[in-house]
Amino acid sequence: MRFSPEPPHRHGQFDHGASARTGVLLVNLGTPDAPDRKAVRRYLAEFLSDPRVIEIPPILWKMILHGVILNVRPKDSAKRYESIWTPEGSPLMVWTQRQTARTQAWLDEQGHHIAVRYGMRYGNPSIASVMTEMRAEGIERILVVPLYPQYAASSTATAIDCVGRWLAKARNQPEVRYLRHFHDDPGYIEALAHRVESFWAERGRAKKLVLSFHGVPMRSLELGDPYHCECHKTGRLLAERLNLTRDEFEVTFQSRFGAAEWLQPYTEPTLKDLASKGVDSVDVFCPGFVGDCLETLEEIAEEAREAYLHAGGKDYRYIPALNDTDPWIDALGKLILSQVQGWPTLANDRSEARAAERAVQREAALHVGAID
């Protein structure tokens, strides 16, 4: 069949039209199903096959990916994942699940009837499978929220692409909206500041705050991707909120891959340089990651720490990501409500919507009768 089959339908089973159910799909990057070579290879194959992630001619990249990378990298990556894996599973998965549950509870407490679900761009549960489940639940209005504060084609856009592919196969498409970015949202900035200030209140403050964002190739900036600018705006707004002077913080970029030039300054070389210049204490925070994951817990909290200390630094502290802190859940809930305006979400909204829909139907029936 050209289009996916619709869920079984019984007349009157679901509300439709003005009173249809509203849902939110939180989208995160994804994670292997297990910290072993086989699962990691499967995950990397999907991730690194995305043309928005790797913008290299497909034929050439396929040879490199399947001939070299997927035969070498999974073993090393599996060890890295194993070093951060928890009894509950992958940290990224754990924090995404907790954020989903807490956001659902927050909306429920506010009196909003909004179903909150999560899906992963790569790995499980897939965006397509979750959207199919949401439609089976009778959800006809979906707000898609990629959990990437700063827009990038290789993160936000590819999540939206994935939703679009699912929609292209749907016969009865739901109404869909997208949250493009929230890099300068006041609630998000406040949540970041609260995280840093709470850490400082408990551990004291280092001489320098390093704000490390995920890196992307420099070519993406040259081609018009706004990611670099949005990262710097987040850094500036957070520094202003924390009352930092320009020499008290640095914005850097991590996770360089391959030989091409990526956004600079690079995080690890910057930390080494600070240590060599006598900056003997640093706090490192990753504002672009709303939940701790491999890149924060292993790359920043461990690898970058070793590099800094080896270069002569004395005190290195990693500040945890937002995870499921109260200010972040509050900010996320408010972001969602700002984006679903005009969609019925409150109990009285739904009853009023149904009444309005019935009134329209009656008016239409009277009009038809007059014509007859």
First and last CA, distance? 41 Å
Question: Helical stretch count?
Answer: 12
Strand order of the largest sheet: 2-1-3-4
Characterize the largest beta sheet: strand count, sense, and whether it forms a barrel: 4 strands, parallel
Order of helices and strands: EHHHEHEHEHEHHEHEHEHH
Which CATH class of the largest domain? Alpha Beta
**Sequence stretches where pLDDT stays below 50 over 5 or more residues:** 355-361
Catalytic activity: heme b + 2 H(+) = protoporphyrin IX + Fe(2+); Fe-coproporphyrin III + 2 H(+) = coproporphyrin III + Fe(2+)
Keywords: Cytoplasm, Heme biosynthesis, Iron, Lyase, Metal-binding, Porphyrin biosynthesis
Protein name: Ferrochelatase
InterPro entries: Ferrochelatase, Ferrochelatase_AS, Ferrochelatase_C, Ferrochelatase_N
